[in-house]
Design brief:
Blueprint lengths: L1 E5 L6 H10 L8 E5 L3 H14 L8 E5 L2 H5 L4 E4 L5 H14 L9 H25 L4 E4 L4 H12 L3 E3 L3 H12 L8 E8 L2 E9 L2 E2 L1 H5 L2 H4 L3 H6 L1 H7 L2 E2 L4 H4 L1 H10 L4 H18 L3 H14 L3 H6 L15 H14 L3 E8 L12 E9 L2 E4 L10 H20 L2 H10 L6 H14 L8
Parallel strand pairs: 1-2, 1-4, 2-3, 4-5, 5-6
Antiparallel strand pairs: 7-8, 8-9, 8-10, 11-12, 12-13
Helix pairs in contact: 1-2, 1-17, 4-5, 4-14, 4-20, 5-6, 5-18, 6-18, 14-15, 18-19, 19-20
Length: 446
């Protein structure tokens, strides 16, 4: 199989490559094309992957391309992981948000909408390019906000674009670990909602739901990250396990206060860290070791202000393990390419799964994967208390898509003004004006 990675010079590429190296099954990926607009990063990434592949027999061949059409030719699968505006854009979003008293995180609220408005024109161009150059390829979208971008690209690619996020499987893995269990073929996690806005509602092991057992033990709840982040009492009150990103909604005031007190935003921190990483890796004899050190630092400081807002302190060693999106991606590819049926939590069109959302709304739910694609499993249950939030955020996503695809400034304003983390129409106006003044690429909004 041939895999093309759009944004292949991105920091997480070695995670995917490591998973490809571990895959020794017949029909595995044998060719990887890295596509990126930055030739220097591509050269450094190729060196990192070469170091990673040392001693691995029959490692996939890796080629680099700055021409997307060239890199897409012959692709069976396409990973889309782009960041329009780079980390500088993320840092600007955070500062614009904080200057108006709102959270600026890159996938929720103002930050998510601004990021999407920068990204959607490029994502739609990519979808058209894939349709023209590699019409038989399947696109696996990692680009954030993942559900929103997947839904927009589906207008061009239909069911051949599927979104992936590692938050749900990471949550399930940590919950299982608190019970002394591990992810395996005997485990079925029931999860429902939207990307970065969902709940783990059941956790069946050998057909038995073990979630009530976990919810009955405060010590077990607070043995893993989400349990400490939300607190055992609140999780027991909910009766389900929330995705970590729901912390921005449940503790908005505390997170905003922590963000305001921080010496620098997460985006600024990553921008400085990544600038140093690329410089060091570009000249290091062992760029893989430089990457590993930077990756551990990123994981250790992940959602730091959220943890500070509730007094959590440092992350536990078990929480530093990657959520495993790269393994989900390989299982998805194999399921489609070789009809290897698997059960995965993915971002796909609703198709009646959540009864009160329309069929085309992209949701994050368990799916069965086969040669014809990913199919949501009927019966996904959003908790009653979450219905209003899911409905509102889906409206916000739709208005953001209308703005990003159609150039409607009014739609962008509606998205901002109706987001629960933005509490004033006047503030919504100011945020949009701030984004348009900061990002020349938003001049298409009229």
């Amino acid at each position: 199989m041939r895999l093309t990675m759009i944004g292949g010079g991105g920091f997480r590429t070695p995670l995917v490559h490591a998973a490809l190296l571990r895959d020794r099954e017949p029909g595995r990926v044998t060719s990887v094309a890295l596509v990126d607009i930055d030739p220097d990063r591509l050269r450094t990434m190729a060196r990192i992957l070469a170091k990673q592949a040392e001693g691995v027999a029959d490692a996939p061949t890796v080629t680099t391309h700055t021409d997307a059409a060239e890199g897409l030719r012959g692709a069976d699968f396409v990973f889309s992981a782009i960041r329009v505006g780079g980390l500088q854009g993320r840092a600007h979003d955070e500062l614009i948000g904080l200057s108006h008293g709102v959270i600026g995180q890159e996938t929720v609220g103002f930050g998510g909408i601004s990021y999407a408005l920068r990204t959607l024109p490029t994502a739609m161009h990519l979808a058209e390019l894939v349709k023209r150059v590699a019409p038989d390829a399947w696109v696996i979208n990692f680009t954030n906000p993942a559900g929103l971008v997947t839904e927009a690209m589906a207008r061009v690619l239909g069911s051949r674009v599927i979104g992936i996020c590692d938050s749900p499987i990471g949550l399930a893995r940590r919950a299982l670990s608190a019970l002394g269990l591990a992810v395996g073929p005997n485990v079925e996690a029931d999860y429902a909602g939207l990307n970065h806005l969902g709940w783990l509602t059941r956790l069946r092991v050998d057909g038995v739901d073990r979630l009530p057992e976990l919810l009955g033990r405060p010590d077990q709840i607070e043995a893993f990250e989400e349990g400490r982040l939300f607190g055992a009492e609140w999780i027991q009150t909910l009766g389900v396990l929330p995705n970590e990103y729901l912390h921005y909604y449940s503790y908005e005031r505390e997170v905003l206060h922590s963000d305001q007190l921080a010496s620098q935003t997460r985006g600024r921190y990553l921008l400085e860290q990544q600038t140093g990483f690329w410089a060091d890796a570009g000249r290091a004899p062992d760029p893989l070791a430089v990457w590993e050190a930077a990756r551990l630092d990123r994981e250790a400081t992940y959602m730091a202000t959220n943890r500070d807002s509730v007094g959590m302190g440092e992350r536990n060693a078990d929480d530093l393990v990657s959520g495993g999106y790269e393994n989900v991606a390989i299982a998805l590819m194999r399921g489609i390419a070789y009809d290897e049926h698997s059960r995965l939590i993915l971002n796909v069109p609703n198709a009646g799964t959540i009864a009160w959302l329309d069929d085309d709304a992209v949701v994050e739910v368990p799916c069965v994967v086969d040669a014809t694609g990913a199919h949501p499993i009927p019966g996904a249950q959003v908790p009653d208390f979450g219905r209003g939030l899911v409905t509102t955020i889906k409206y916000v996503e739709r208005e953001t898509i209308e703005a990003g695809v159609g150039g409607s400034r009014a739609a962008a304003l509606r998205a901002l003004a109706h987001h629960p983390l933005i509490d004033s129409v006047k503030v919504a106006h100011a945020l949009l004006d701030g984004a348009r003044a900061t990002f020349p690429e938003l001049s298409y909004l009229y």
